[in-house]
Amino acid sequence: IIKSKRMATNRTAWAVTALFFLFLIAASVVSIYREGALFIPGLAPTVFKKGDPVPLSVNKITSVHEPIPFRYNSLPVCTPPDDEIHATTTENIGAIVTGNRVENSVYKLSLLRDDYCEKLCSRPVSKDEVAKLIELVGFEYKAQWQIDDLPVAVSVTSNSEQPLYETGFNLGQKVSEGKSTLNNHINILIHYHTDKNSATKDGYNIVLFEVQPMSIKYSDEGFKKECEGAYSETPEPLVLEDIAEGGAITYSYSVQWRASPIEWSQRWHNYRSLQGGGKIHWFSITNSLMIIFFLSGIIAAILAKTLRRDFLRIEEDENELDDETGWKLLNADVFRAPRWPSALCVLFGSGVQVLGMALITMSFSVLGFLSPSNQGSVVTGIIVLYVWMGLLAGYSSSRLYQIFNGERTFRNTIATALVVPGTIFGICFVLNLFLAQKGSSGAFPATTMLALFALWLCVSVPLCYLGSRFAYNQDPPRIPAQPNLIPRPIPTQRWYSSNVFSILMGGILPFGAIVIELSYIMSSIWFHKYYFLFGFLFLVFLILVITCAEISIVMCYFQLCSLDWQWWWRSFLASGASAFYMFLYAIYYYTRLDIEGFVATIVYFGYTLILCLGLFVLTGTIGFASSFYFVKKIYGAIHQD
């Protein structure tokens, strides 16, 4: 009766889980085909009236060739007085970690009021400041501004039917060796849409923030004439190398308002178009599904033909077991604890922690609760959920440690709470030192570093310990057979059955399932683009889970058939090897970015190591859990017979 109740409970749990994933898959498909950006529940549009002031905020400057951001207000540009500079948005931990510093500016904009050739200021510059501007222009740094939470956009196509925009505008252009120009005039084009839902019908929503940067060399007299003439003919550019010692840079701007048919709910559509059409993403998913069908066919053949035949032989004569060959001979050794069992438990627990964080983050993103349009919300969600998933890390690591009959339970729990999170924190701390030395906005303030440290030690570590207490208060998991005292000798393996070859082969298919979507994620990170394709990402994530599970089961079965019972570590490393291929891909991507400088290289590979570590424990955990379930089932069937 107890067993039947337990089976009924398990079936109910599986049914609820299946319904939840079907709901998320349906939500993913809807988010893919839905027009415009994802809507954040509870977020209402800002309604402006004619003549209302429209704040223009400045953020940071970024470069593809040097992944080190800087505050825009730290440049020799027109800025408010130091005591009047303040953040214009509520800074969350995700925005700070990603180097965003959204601050007020000296630009004065009013709704529907066009301004032409307004002089902003004449900024005296030193020789060192000019040299810094020349360096930033040479690295193709772009300024990131925003109005009403919309990032600044620059048109990169002349096709009016389907305009294409890039976020950020160049500080200047490197014309030739020893000649760099500075964009000191900004033509601001703000697209607005009439808000039909406003009470008085005279409200307006901002739907696009576009700029046209220009370089104009102003003389001491005739500012207005030179500025207006720049719109009818090509002006003489401002060459930074020609600025004399003690000279000044004159900054100016113009503002034009344009009516737009784009509604507020679809205003992010122009930024989404930068991520390519849906065909290539569907091609990626189709390619991954073909891999799944191939692996599923192999597993079906193993289960339907090979295993069933083996079970029938055992049923006919149990005494034949000693004369048999293959995986059945390992029933007394297959559950023998591996070398370094605590290390495997630590990695498994950390993988469960990353898996829980990734699943919940993508679920909220698919449903629209987390969106890049809400600056820093996705990164904040990742950090907070990773901390809270320490509970799952402690529980899963301790349950596996019980199977190995481990005695140092407290050391295993502490290692689970400290090793992987501590490695991530240590890498971030070292990178922060380099970024702080550069004066980058990507360097965490001391308060942010202390907050992250407190989240780790005061929240994640206690939750990990609490999860381990839950695990040790339960009976140890049951395994079909206890190992013999004397381990069975492992015969000499062929070269294609060696650990190194099997592990490297096991990581190819999981990496192949995600490589196309990975390229878009890398582009979003290093090319400073917005990533909205969470529907595709969630589908690819499910494909990754299935691929890791199936490739690990296949590799584990072939290993057992070769009478090698040391499957624990190989099942983890086989699917976890996808992180190795991701690192190789990151090296190739590094050559595409043309990054220069020691600190920039350290920053790139530092953050790449964090991503690869996360993928390693994630895919390794999926593969290990699937192999353990497979081994437990097939050897459990032998002992039931």
Characterization of the model:
The chain is α+β, with helices and mostly antiparallel strands and 641 residues long. The protein is built from 17 helices and 14 strands. The strands form four sheets. Strands 1, 2, 3, 5, 6 and 9 form a six-stranded antiparallel beta sheet that branches. The model is unreliable at 31-42 (pLDDT under 50).
Mean pLDDT: 82
Helix content: 40-55%
Could you describe the largest sheet, including whether it forms a barrel? 6 strands, antiparallel
Distance between the terminal alpha carbons, to the nearest Å?
21 Å
DSSP summary: helix tally: 17
How big is the Rg? Answer: 30 Å
The protein's oligomeric status is single chain
- Beta-strand level of the residues, as a percent range? 5-15%
The low-confidence runs, each spanning 5 or more residues with pLDDT under 50, are: 31-42
Gist of the model:
By secondary structure, the protein is an alpha+beta fold. It has 17 helices and 14 strands. The strands form four sheets. Strands 1, 2, 3, 5, 6 and 9 form a six-stranded antiparallel beta sheet that branches. Strands 4-14-12-13 form a four-stranded mixed beta sheet, covered by helices on one side. Strands 7-8 form a two-stranded antiparallel sheet.
